[in-house]
Amino acid sequence: MNNFEFYCPTRVLFGKGQIAELPRLIDKSKKILMTYGGGSIKKNGVYDQVKKALEGYNVLEFGGIEPNPKYETLMKAVEIVKREGVDFLLAVGGGSTLDGTKFIALASKYDGDDAYDAIMIRGEHPDSAVELADIITLPATGSEMNNGGVISRLATSEKLAFHNPNCFPKFSIIDPEVTYSLPVRQTINGIVDTFVHTMEFNCTYDVNSPLQDIWAMGILRTLIQEAPKVLANPEDYDARANIFWCATCGLNYWISVGVPQDWSTHMIGHELTAFYGIDHGQSLAIILPRLLRNQKVSKSQKLAKIAREVFKVDESVDLKAADIAIDKIEEFFNSIGMKTHLADYEIDPAEAAEKIRDRFAKRGVAFGEKGAITADVAYDVVLAS
Ligand code: NZQ
Ligand code: ZN
Known about the structure:
This protein is α/β, with parallel strands linked by helices and 385 residues long.
Protein backbone atom coordinates (compact mmCIF):
# COMPACT_ATOMS: atom_id res chain seq x y z
CA MET A 1 0.00 0.00 0.00
CA ASN A 2 1.21 3.53 -0.75
CA ASN A 3 1.66 6.21 1.91
CA PHE A 4 -1.34 8.44 2.44
CA GLU A 5 -2.81 11.30 4.46
CA PHE A 6 -6.54 11.39 5.05
CA TYR A 7 -8.54 14.36 6.28
CA CYS A 8 -12.28 14.98 6.19
CA PRO A 9 -13.84 17.35 8.72
CA THR A 10 -17.42 17.02 7.42
CA ARG A 11 -20.13 16.03 9.90
CA VAL A 12 -22.64 13.74 8.18
CA LEU A 13 -26.28 13.47 9.25
CA PHE A 14 -27.88 10.61 7.36
CA GLY A 15 -31.51 9.54 7.27
CA LYS A 16 -35.13 10.57 7.48
CA GLY A 17 -36.07 13.90 8.99
CA GLN A 18 -32.51 15.15 9.45
CA ILE A 19 -33.21 18.56 7.88
CA ALA A 20 -34.99 19.48 11.13
CA GLU A 21 -31.59 19.30 12.87
CA LEU A 22 -30.36 22.46 11.10
CA PRO A 23 -30.73 24.76 14.14
CA ARG A 24 -28.34 22.51 16.07
CA LEU A 25 -25.75 22.89 13.32
CA ILE A 26 -25.73 26.60 12.42
CA ASP A 27 -25.12 29.40 14.87
CA LYS A 28 -28.01 31.90 15.12
CA SER A 29 -25.62 34.81 14.59
CA LYS A 30 -24.80 33.71 11.03
CA LYS A 31 -25.98 35.58 7.96
CA ILE A 32 -26.87 32.71 5.64
CA LEU A 33 -27.08 32.58 1.86
CA MET A 34 -29.11 29.54 0.85
CA THR A 35 -28.17 28.47 -2.67
CA TYR A 36 -30.18 26.18 -4.91
CA GLY A 37 -30.70 25.08 -8.50
CA GLY A 38 -33.55 25.36 -10.96
CA GLY A 39 -36.40 24.84 -8.53
CA SER A 40 -36.69 21.09 -7.81
CA ILE A 41 -36.47 21.86 -4.08
CA LYS A 42 -39.61 24.00 -4.31
CA LYS A 43 -41.57 21.13 -5.86
CA ASN A 44 -40.48 18.28 -3.58
CA GLY A 45 -40.91 20.02 -0.23
CA VAL A 46 -37.21 20.35 0.62
CA TYR A 47 -37.31 24.16 0.40
CA ASP A 48 -40.23 24.28 2.87
CA GLN A 49 -38.46 21.92 5.27
CA VAL A 50 -35.34 24.11 5.24
CA LYS A 51 -37.28 27.36 5.67
CA LYS A 52 -39.18 25.86 8.59
CA ALA A 53 -36.03 24.61 10.28
CA LEU A 54 -34.36 28.01 9.83
CA GLU A 55 -37.22 30.13 11.20
CA GLY A 56 -35.75 33.07 13.08
CA TYR A 57 -32.47 32.94 11.12
CA ASN A 58 -31.25 35.67 8.80
CA VAL A 59 -31.49 33.87 5.43
CA LEU A 60 -30.95 35.28 1.96
CA GLU A 61 -31.49 33.16 -1.14
CA PHE A 62 -29.76 32.58 -4.45
CA GLY A 63 -31.50 30.22 -6.91
CA GLY A 64 -30.77 29.31 -10.50
CA ILE A 65 -27.46 27.42 -10.23
CA GLU A 66 -27.64 25.25 -13.33
CA PRO A 67 -26.41 21.66 -13.87
CA ASN A 68 -22.67 21.87 -14.62
CA PRO A 69 -22.62 25.18 -12.71
CA LYS A 70 -21.52 28.19 -14.68
CA TYR A 71 -18.93 30.68 -13.50
CA GLU A 72 -21.00 33.48 -14.99
CA THR A 73 -23.98 32.57 -12.73
CA LEU A 74 -21.90 31.93 -9.62
CA MET A 75 -20.29 35.38 -9.73
CA LYS A 76 -23.76 36.90 -9.22
CA ALA A 77 -23.91 35.09 -5.89
CA VAL A 78 -20.39 36.25 -5.05
CA GLU A 79 -21.62 39.83 -5.43
CA ILE A 80 -24.42 39.16 -2.93
CA VAL A 81 -22.04 37.53 -0.43
CA LYS A 82 -19.68 40.51 -0.59
CA ARG A 83 -22.39 43.18 -0.58
CA GLU A 84 -24.47 41.65 2.23
CA GLY A 85 -21.65 40.35 4.40
CA VAL A 86 -22.87 36.74 4.19
CA ASP A 87 -20.85 34.46 6.48
CA PHE A 88 -22.49 31.06 5.91
CA LEU A 89 -23.44 29.33 2.66
CA LEU A 90 -26.05 26.57 2.71
CA ALA A 91 -26.26 24.63 -0.56
CA VAL A 92 -29.57 22.82 -1.04
CA GLY A 93 -29.52 20.66 -4.16
CA GLY A 94 -27.44 18.31 -6.28
CA GLY A 95 -23.71 18.22 -6.89
CA SER A 96 -23.91 21.23 -9.20
CA THR A 97 -25.45 23.45 -6.53
CA LEU A 98 -22.93 22.25 -3.97
CA ASP A 99 -19.91 22.54 -6.28
CA GLY A 100 -21.08 26.00 -7.33
CA THR A 101 -21.42 26.96 -3.68
CA LYS A 102 -17.88 25.79 -2.94
CA PHE A 103 -16.69 28.06 -5.73
CA ILE A 104 -18.79 30.96 -4.38
CA ALA A 105 -17.24 30.35 -0.95
CA LEU A 106 -13.72 30.70 -2.36
CA ALA A 107 -14.36 33.41 -4.94
CA SER A 108 -16.01 35.58 -2.28
CA LYS A 109 -12.60 35.80 -0.60
CA TYR A 110 -10.83 36.70 -3.84
CA ASP A 111 -10.28 40.35 -4.67
CA GLY A 112 -8.83 40.27 -8.21
CA ASP A 113 -10.64 40.68 -11.55
CA ASP A 114 -11.17 37.18 -12.81
CA ALA A 115 -11.81 34.55 -10.14
CA TYR A 116 -12.12 31.75 -12.73
CA ASP A 117 -8.70 32.46 -14.17
CA ALA A 118 -7.16 32.64 -10.72
CA ILE A 119 -8.82 29.64 -9.08
CA MET A 120 -9.51 27.27 -11.99
CA ILE A 121 -6.62 28.00 -14.37
CA ARG A 122 -3.72 29.36 -12.35
CA GLY A 123 -4.61 27.54 -9.11
CA GLU A 124 -4.11 30.73 -7.10
CA HIS A 125 -6.62 30.24 -4.32
CA PRO A 126 -7.45 32.74 -1.57
CA ASP A 127 -6.30 31.45 1.84
CA SER A 128 -9.82 31.22 3.25
CA ALA A 129 -13.38 30.51 2.15
CA VAL A 130 -16.81 31.40 3.50
CA GLU A 131 -18.05 28.59 5.75
CA LEU A 132 -20.37 26.23 3.87
CA ALA A 133 -22.62 23.24 4.40
CA ASP A 134 -25.23 21.37 2.40
CA ILE A 135 -28.40 19.43 2.12
CA ILE A 136 -27.53 17.16 -0.78
CA THR A 137 -30.47 15.99 -2.89
CA LEU A 138 -28.85 13.79 -5.55
CA PRO A 139 -26.67 10.74 -4.91
CA ALA A 140 -23.82 10.96 -7.41
CA THR A 141 -20.87 13.24 -6.89
CA GLY A 142 -19.81 12.62 -3.29
CA SER A 143 -19.31 16.39 -3.17
CA GLU A 144 -21.06 16.27 0.22
CA MET A 145 -17.97 14.69 1.76
CA ASN A 146 -15.09 16.04 -0.30
CA ASN A 147 -13.43 19.39 -0.97
CA GLY A 148 -13.71 19.43 -4.76
CA GLY A 149 -15.89 21.17 -7.28
CA VAL A 150 -16.31 21.18 -11.05
CA ILE A 151 -17.07 24.52 -12.68
CA SER A 152 -17.89 25.40 -16.28
CA ARG A 153 -17.26 28.66 -18.07
CA LEU A 154 -19.73 29.49 -20.83
CA ALA A 155 -17.49 32.01 -22.53
CA THR A 156 -14.78 29.44 -23.26
CA SER A 157 -16.80 26.13 -23.23
CA GLU A 158 -14.54 24.88 -20.46
CA LYS A 159 -15.25 22.52 -17.57
CA LEU A 160 -12.53 22.13 -14.94
CA ALA A 161 -12.14 20.79 -11.42
CA PHE A 162 -10.67 22.44 -8.32
CA HIS A 163 -9.91 21.26 -4.80
CA ASN A 164 -9.38 23.33 -1.68
CA PRO A 165 -9.09 22.24 1.98
CA ASN A 166 -11.38 25.13 3.01
CA CYS A 167 -14.17 23.79 0.80
CA PHE A 168 -15.11 20.74 2.84
CA PRO A 169 -18.73 21.18 3.92
CA LYS A 170 -18.99 21.86 7.67
CA PHE A 171 -21.87 19.37 7.64
CA SER A 172 -23.88 17.45 5.07
CA ILE A 173 -27.46 16.37 5.52
CA ILE A 174 -28.28 13.27 3.48
CA ASP A 175 -31.96 12.35 3.61
CA PRO A 176 -32.69 9.57 1.10
CA GLU A 177 -36.39 10.51 1.09
CA VAL A 178 -35.58 13.72 -0.80
CA THR A 179 -34.45 11.57 -3.74
CA TYR A 180 -37.93 10.11 -4.35
CA SER A 181 -38.61 13.07 -6.64
CA LEU A 182 -35.56 12.53 -8.86
CA PRO A 183 -36.28 12.16 -12.57
CA VAL A 184 -35.29 8.64 -13.73
CA ARG A 185 -32.54 10.15 -15.88
CA GLN A 186 -30.90 11.74 -12.85
CA THR A 187 -31.23 8.56 -10.78
CA ILE A 188 -29.43 6.67 -13.54
CA ASN A 189 -26.80 9.40 -13.98
CA GLY A 190 -26.04 9.20 -10.26
CA ILE A 191 -25.68 5.42 -10.25
CA VAL A 192 -23.30 5.54 -13.21
CA ASP A 193 -21.31 8.44 -11.76
CA THR A 194 -20.83 6.50 -8.51
CA PHE A 195 -19.90 3.33 -10.40
CA VAL A 196 -17.29 5.22 -12.41
CA HIS A 197 -15.80 7.00 -9.37
CA THR A 198 -15.31 3.60 -7.80
CA MET A 199 -13.72 2.22 -10.96
CA GLU A 200 -11.38 5.19 -11.28
CA PHE A 201 -10.19 4.75 -7.72
CA ASN A 202 -9.83 0.99 -7.94
CA CYS A 203 -9.25 -0.21 -11.49
CA THR A 204 -5.55 0.58 -11.90
CA TYR A 205 -2.87 -1.85 -10.72
CA ASP A 206 -2.48 -3.90 -7.58
CA VAL A 207 -0.56 -2.44 -4.62
CA ASN A 208 -1.67 -5.12 -2.16
CA SER A 209 -4.57 -3.18 -0.62
CA PRO A 210 -7.24 -5.82 -0.02
CA LEU A 211 -9.35 -3.65 2.29
CA GLN A 212 -9.67 -0.84 -0.27
CA ASP A 213 -10.47 -3.47 -2.93
CA ILE A 214 -13.21 -5.03 -0.82
CA TRP A 215 -14.71 -1.60 -0.06
CA ALA A 216 -14.67 -0.69 -3.76
CA MET A 217 -16.13 -4.04 -4.87
CA GLY A 218 -18.75 -3.62 -2.14
CA ILE A 219 -19.85 -0.33 -3.67
CA LEU A 220 -20.01 -1.82 -7.18
CA ARG A 221 -21.97 -4.84 -5.97
CA THR A 222 -24.37 -2.72 -3.94
CA LEU A 223 -25.07 -0.48 -6.93
CA ILE A 224 -25.77 -3.47 -9.16
CA GLN A 225 -28.04 -4.97 -6.52
CA GLU A 226 -29.97 -1.82 -5.56
CA ALA A 227 -30.29 -0.03 -8.94
CA PRO A 228 -33.14 -2.19 -10.26
CA LYS A 229 -35.01 -1.70 -6.97
CA VAL A 230 -35.05 2.12 -7.14
CA LEU A 231 -35.95 2.01 -10.81
CA ALA A 232 -38.87 -0.35 -10.10
CA ASN A 233 -39.99 1.56 -7.02
CA PRO A 234 -38.65 5.12 -6.66
CA GLU A 235 -39.95 5.24 -3.08
CA ASP A 236 -38.04 2.18 -1.87
CA TYR A 237 -36.40 3.89 1.11
CA ASP A 238 -33.79 1.23 1.79
CA ALA A 239 -32.64 1.07 -1.82
CA ARG A 240 -32.47 4.88 -2.01
CA ALA A 241 -30.50 4.94 1.24
CA ASN A 242 -28.05 2.28 0.07
CA ILE A 243 -27.46 4.06 -3.22
CA PHE A 244 -26.92 7.40 -1.50
CA TRP A 245 -24.36 5.97 0.91
CA CYS A 246 -22.57 4.30 -2.03
CA ALA A 247 -22.40 7.69 -3.76
CA THR A 248 -20.99 9.42 -0.71
CA CYS A 249 -18.43 6.68 -0.07
CA GLY A 250 -17.58 6.54 -3.77
CA LEU A 251 -15.93 9.94 -3.57
CA ASN A 252 -15.11 10.69 0.05
CA TYR A 253 -11.66 9.19 -0.62
CA TRP A 254 -11.93 6.21 1.75
CA ILE A 255 -11.56 3.77 -1.13
CA SER A 256 -8.73 5.79 -2.67
CA VAL A 257 -6.31 6.01 0.23
CA GLY A 258 -3.00 4.34 -0.48
CA VAL A 259 -3.89 3.18 -3.99
CA PRO A 260 -3.15 4.54 -7.49
CA GLN A 261 -6.01 6.34 -9.28
CA ASP A 262 -7.07 6.95 -12.85
CA TRP A 263 -9.30 9.97 -13.58
CA SER A 264 -9.00 9.85 -17.35
CA THR A 265 -12.63 8.83 -17.96
CA HIS A 266 -13.70 11.93 -16.03
CA MET A 267 -11.25 14.19 -17.81
CA ILE A 268 -12.46 13.06 -21.23
CA GLY A 269 -16.08 13.08 -20.06
CA HIS A 270 -15.80 16.70 -18.86
CA GLU A 271 -14.77 17.70 -22.37
CA LEU A 272 -17.81 15.95 -23.87
CA THR A 273 -20.04 17.89 -21.47
CA ALA A 274 -18.21 21.15 -22.19
CA PHE A 275 -18.47 20.75 -25.98
CA TYR A 276 -21.81 18.98 -26.36
CA GLY A 277 -23.75 19.63 -23.14
CA ILE A 278 -24.45 15.98 -22.33
CA ASP A 279 -24.95 15.09 -18.66
CA HIS A 280 -21.92 14.17 -16.55
CA GLY A 281 -23.14 10.58 -15.97
CA GLN A 282 -23.94 10.13 -19.66
CA SER A 283 -20.45 11.22 -20.67
CA LEU A 284 -18.85 8.68 -18.32
CA ALA A 285 -20.97 5.76 -19.54
CA ILE A 286 -19.77 6.45 -23.08
CA ILE A 287 -16.08 6.72 -22.26
CA LEU A 288 -15.46 4.15 -19.50
CA PRO A 289 -15.99 0.96 -21.57
CA ARG A 290 -13.72 2.24 -24.39
CA LEU A 291 -11.07 3.54 -21.99
CA LEU A 292 -10.99 0.17 -20.21
CA ARG A 293 -10.75 -1.68 -23.53
CA ASN A 294 -7.89 0.60 -24.60
CA GLN A 295 -6.03 0.02 -21.31
CA LYS A 296 -7.07 -3.62 -20.85
CA VAL A 297 -3.59 -5.08 -20.68
CA SER A 298 -2.27 -2.71 -18.04
CA LYS A 299 -5.49 -2.97 -15.99
CA SER A 300 -6.05 -6.70 -16.53
CA GLN A 301 -5.30 -7.81 -12.98
CA LYS A 302 -7.86 -5.43 -11.45
CA LEU A 303 -10.40 -5.99 -14.21
CA ALA A 304 -10.13 -9.74 -13.73
CA LYS A 305 -10.72 -9.30 -10.00
CA ILE A 306 -13.81 -7.20 -10.74
CA ALA A 307 -15.04 -9.88 -13.16
CA ARG A 308 -14.67 -12.59 -10.54
CA GLU A 309 -15.73 -10.76 -7.39
CA VAL A 310 -18.38 -8.35 -8.68
CA PHE A 311 -19.83 -10.24 -11.63
CA LYS A 312 -19.07 -13.77 -10.33
CA VAL A 313 -17.40 -14.79 -13.60
CA ASP A 314 -15.65 -18.15 -13.59
CA GLU A 315 -12.62 -17.44 -15.82
CA SER A 316 -9.06 -18.10 -14.71
CA VAL A 317 -7.22 -16.28 -17.54
CA ASP A 318 -6.88 -12.60 -16.52
CA LEU A 319 -7.09 -11.10 -20.00
CA LYS A 320 -10.20 -13.10 -20.84
CA ALA A 321 -11.80 -12.22 -17.51
CA ALA A 322 -10.92 -8.56 -18.12
CA ASP A 323 -12.77 -8.61 -21.44
CA ILE A 324 -15.81 -10.11 -19.76
CA ALA A 325 -15.73 -7.47 -17.00
CA ILE A 326 -15.79 -4.65 -19.57
CA ASP A 327 -18.75 -6.25 -21.36
CA LYS A 328 -20.58 -6.76 -18.07
CA ILE A 329 -20.06 -3.13 -17.03
CA GLU A 330 -21.51 -1.86 -20.31
CA GLU A 331 -24.37 -4.38 -20.01
CA PHE A 332 -25.11 -3.07 -16.51
CA PHE A 333 -25.23 0.53 -17.75
CA ASN A 334 -27.53 -0.48 -20.60
CA SER A 335 -29.72 -2.56 -18.29
CA ILE A 336 -30.58 0.50 -16.20
CA GLY A 337 -31.37 2.55 -19.29
CA MET A 338 -28.03 4.34 -19.76
CA LYS A 339 -26.80 4.71 -23.33
CA THR A 340 -23.12 4.08 -24.00
CA HIS A 341 -22.27 5.53 -27.43
CA LEU A 342 -21.70 9.02 -28.81
CA ALA A 343 -24.05 8.19 -31.68
CA ASP A 344 -26.89 7.83 -29.15
CA TYR A 345 -26.58 11.61 -28.64
CA GLU A 346 -25.95 12.36 -32.32
CA ILE A 347 -22.34 13.30 -31.63
CA ASP A 348 -19.84 12.55 -34.39
CA PRO A 349 -16.99 10.53 -32.81
CA ALA A 350 -14.39 11.80 -35.30
CA GLU A 351 -15.23 15.44 -34.60
CA ALA A 352 -15.32 14.92 -30.82
CA ALA A 353 -12.02 13.00 -30.91
CA GLU A 354 -10.30 15.83 -32.82
CA LYS A 355 -11.57 18.53 -30.47
CA ILE A 356 -10.51 16.65 -27.36
CA ARG A 357 -7.11 15.73 -28.76
CA ASP A 358 -6.47 19.39 -29.61
CA ARG A 359 -7.45 20.56 -26.17
CA PHE A 360 -5.38 17.97 -24.29
CA ALA A 361 -2.40 18.59 -26.57
CA LYS A 362 -2.59 22.34 -25.89
CA ARG A 363 -2.77 21.72 -22.16
CA GLY A 364 0.06 19.20 -22.41
CA VAL A 365 -1.71 16.69 -20.16
CA ALA A 366 -1.37 12.93 -19.74
CA PHE A 367 -3.89 11.20 -17.49
CA GLY A 368 -4.24 7.75 -15.94
CA GLU A 369 -2.37 5.90 -13.21
CA LYS A 370 0.71 5.64 -15.44
CA GLY A 371 0.28 8.86 -17.43
CA ALA A 372 -0.62 6.71 -20.45
CA ILE A 373 -3.68 8.68 -21.54
CA THR A 374 -2.03 11.29 -23.73
CA ALA A 375 -3.89 13.50 -26.21
CA ASP A 376 -3.41 10.81 -28.89
CA VAL A 377 -4.69 7.98 -26.70
CA ALA A 378 -7.71 10.11 -25.70
CA TYR A 379 -8.31 10.57 -29.45
CA ASP A 380 -8.41 6.78 -29.96
CA VAL A 381 -10.72 6.28 -26.99
CA VAL A 382 -13.21 8.93 -28.15
CA LEU A 383 -13.08 7.75 -31.75
CA ALA A 384 -13.93 4.21 -30.59
CA SER A 385 -16.86 5.55 -28.57
O1 NZQ B 1 -31.52 22.34 -10.47
P1 NZQ B 1 -32.64 21.62 -9.82
O2 NZQ B 1 -33.97 22.18 -10.12
O3 NZQ B 1 -32.41 21.38 -8.35
O4 NZQ B 1 -32.73 20.15 -10.51
C1 NZQ B 1 -31.62 19.26 -10.56
C2 NZQ B 1 -30.95 19.21 -11.92
O5 NZQ B 1 -31.85 19.54 -12.94
C3 NZQ B 1 -32.17 17.86 -10.43
N1 NZQ B 1 -32.32 17.41 -9.03
C4 NZQ B 1 -31.38 17.36 -8.07
N2 NZQ B 1 -31.89 16.81 -6.95
C5 NZQ B 1 -33.21 16.55 -7.21
C6 NZQ B 1 -33.48 16.94 -8.54
N3 NZQ B 1 -34.71 16.81 -9.11
C7 NZQ B 1 -35.68 16.27 -8.35
N4 NZQ B 1 -35.47 15.83 -7.07
C8 NZQ B 1 -34.26 15.95 -6.46
N5 NZQ B 1 -34.06 15.47 -5.23
O6 NZQ B 1 -31.21 17.04 -11.06
C9 NZQ B 1 -30.58 17.75 -12.11
C10 NZQ B 1 -29.08 17.51 -12.07
O7 NZQ B 1 -28.53 18.07 -10.90
P2 NZQ B 1 -26.95 18.21 -10.74
O8 NZQ B 1 -26.70 18.85 -9.42
O9 NZQ B 1 -26.39 18.85 -11.95
O10 NZQ B 1 -26.48 16.69 -10.75
P3 NZQ B 1 -25.26 15.98 -10.06
O11 NZQ B 1 -25.44 15.86 -8.59
O12 NZQ B 1 -25.07 14.75 -10.82
O13 NZQ B 1 -24.02 16.97 -10.27
C11 NZQ B 1 -23.33 17.01 -11.50
C12 NZQ B 1 -22.16 17.96 -11.39
O14 NZQ B 1 -21.23 17.54 -10.41
C13 NZQ B 1 -19.92 17.44 -10.98
C14 NZQ B 1 -20.24 17.10 -12.41
O15 NZQ B 1 -19.15 17.31 -13.27
C15 NZQ B 1 -21.39 18.03 -12.69
O16 NZQ B 1 -20.93 19.35 -12.95
N6 NZQ B 1 -19.09 16.49 -10.23
C16 NZQ B 1 -18.64 16.88 -9.02
C17 NZQ B 1 -17.77 16.12 -8.28
C18 NZQ B 1 -17.27 16.54 -6.95
N7 NZQ B 1 -17.60 17.72 -6.48
O17 NZQ B 1 -16.54 15.82 -6.30
C19 NZQ B 1 -17.25 14.85 -8.80
C20 NZQ B 1 -18.04 14.29 -9.91
O18 NZQ B 1 -17.23 13.41 -10.62
C21 NZQ B 1 -18.60 15.30 -10.85
O19 NZQ B 1 -17.61 15.67 -11.79
ZN1 ZN C 1 -18.23 11.99 -11.57
